[in-house]
Amino acid sequence: MTTSTESTFDLPDASKLASAFVDLARSVNDGKDMVEVFSMLAERCVTVLTVAACGILVIDPMGELEVIGSSNHSAHLLDLFQVQNVEGPCLQCCRTGTAVVDTELSANGPWPGFATAAREQGYVAVYAVPLAARGIVVGALNLFANQPIRADELAVAQALADAATIALLQADPREDEVVVTRRLRLVVEERNTIEQAKGVLSQRFSIDAQEAFVQLRRAGERTGTRLIDVATSVVNRDISYDAARLLANPIE
């Protein structure tokens, strides 16, 4: 990986970086659910950094990795591959609590199946940085690139991951284990509900999961409704929400 002596603030997209932090902070202050915050984080990483895709996984209360957010379908599939095959950079990152860099994706490397899958998606390098607070790792942020990124960009990714972790936990993981466990369980439950809602919309309107997610978010934004509340109304067939009524009509 190429290193750089430039500071973070010398990056060409410094204004986008500042905007990313502002958006994360505003989302938390506005009470958005964490699945939406993490999805925003994944999208902002692609905007700010020279990476093609980003995915986010968290460790559930049972110690298993769960895919929470992704910037596109290929990132989602590769993160699912890691979870289902117990192989990939995010698992090592969560285990060690340190960033993982793989700019070779060799079939003879530590995760040959994942490397092959990543290359088939057109990526040449992958990175994983921990979602951690006070030494406690609660997940990892995965970056997929078409070319190796600079060391300062990896530092930016870690800073964004740290900001999202603080938003997720809102507690000291060493002192408030019960609170942290509850929040992680809630994030996984919210993710499951949103996945169900995406499935409902995908089937009803013959659209893919990514477009279904876009429609859920768009309906929430138009009506000032939290994403999880929109998703719940879709799953429960409850059209009392204005957002649900928007989704009950053919999608434009």
**Share of β-strand residues:** 5-15%
First-to-last CA distance: 44 Å
- Biggest sheet, strands in spatial order? 2-1-5-4-3
Strand tally, please?
5
Q: Count helical runs.
A: 10
For the report, how would you describe the main beta sheet? 5 strands, antiparallel
What is the gist of this entry?
By secondary structure, the protein is of the alpha+beta class. About 55% of the residues lie in helices and about 15% in strands. α7 packs across α8 and α7 packs across α9.
Explain how this protein is built.
With 252 residues, the chain is of the alpha+beta class. The chain has two domains: 168 residues, 2-Layer Sandwich (Beta-Lactamase), CATH 3.30.450; 60 residues, Arc Repressor Mutant, subunit A (Orthogonal Bundle). Helices cover 55% and strands 14% of the residues. A five-stranded antiparallel beta sheet has the order 2-1-5-4-3, with helices on both faces. α1 runs parallel beside α6.
List keywords for this structure.
Beta-Lactamase; 55% helix; five-stranded antiparallel beta sheet; alpha+beta; disordered N terminus; 252 residues; single chain; 14% strand; Arc Repressor Mutant, subunit A
What is the fold's blueprint, element by element?
Blueprint: H1 14-29, H2 34-48, E1 53-59, E2 65-70, H3 73-85, H4 89-96, E3 100-102, H5 112-120, E4 125-133, E5 136-145, H6 151-169, H7 177-205, H8 209-223, H9 227-235, H10 242-247
Antiparallel strand pairs: 1-2, 1-5, 3-4, 4-5
Helix pairs in contact: 1-2, 1-6, 2-6, 7-8, 7-9, 8-9
